[in-house]
Amino acid sequence: SQTIHQWPATLVQPVGSPLSLECTVEGTSNPNLYWYRQAAGRGLQLLFYSVGIGQISSEVPQNLSASRPQDRQFILSSKKLLLSDSGFYLCAWSVQGSTEAFFGQGTRLTVV
Amino acid sequence: GQNIDQPTEMTATEGAIVQINCTYQTSGFNGLFWYQQHAGEAPTFLSYNVLDGLEEKGRFSSFLSRSKGYSYLLLKELQMKDSASYLCAVTPPGSARQLTFGSGTQLTVLP
Fold first, then answer.
1. Buried-state track B26-63, b at ≥16 Cβ within 10 A, e below 16
2. Residues of A with CB under 8 A from a CB of B
3. Per-residue confidence of chain A (112 residues) as pLDDT tens digits?
């Protein structure tokens, strides 16, 4: 069966510090991968999606970046965090050609 | 682009029936999802509609009208554990099939 792992679960970082959130998927190959952010009381905002290794599409301009160094690994990064980067970050995957997304457990990031 | 509207909050009583509406305006449409999200947790899949009509799955049903850009999620025999945020999401045509989510409806079930 397929599983998705996302870590860490919670993170408190100072403004200006770097960020690296990692997500891996097991039990499938060549998945679509997604990073979403959910601000408090808000809906899910798509940040990045990837249809293959090294292929990253950005949905909104921001100081975040994403990379896909391996087929089932998706990394969300920032060189310098802003207060506005605080939120609940969710990694998700879907089968190529399918529409249902399966979510990781999320990372609650607080920038202080 | 995509625009999805759903009520921010709803309250209902245990054992009752509640209907959560979702309207959307999209430049293309390839299906509508409903997800349930408990506080601090990841969303979990509830239903998927791509054709008009009602899809029933246990206590939960979802309805879609593509001509009206309208969907609803119907929850029957409400239980306290149904208190959660319910997210409507649409998927546009495209190879990546990424979902666009509404802001969610926070449902509170009262005893």
1. beebebbbbbbbeeeebbeebbbbeeeeebeeeebbbb
2. 32, 34, 36, 42-46, 49, 51, 57, 59, 88, 90, 94, 97-106, 108
3. 889 999 999 999 999 999 999 999 999 999 999 999 988 767 788 899 998 999 998 877 678 999 999 999 999 999 999 999 999 999 999 888 776 889 999 999 999 9
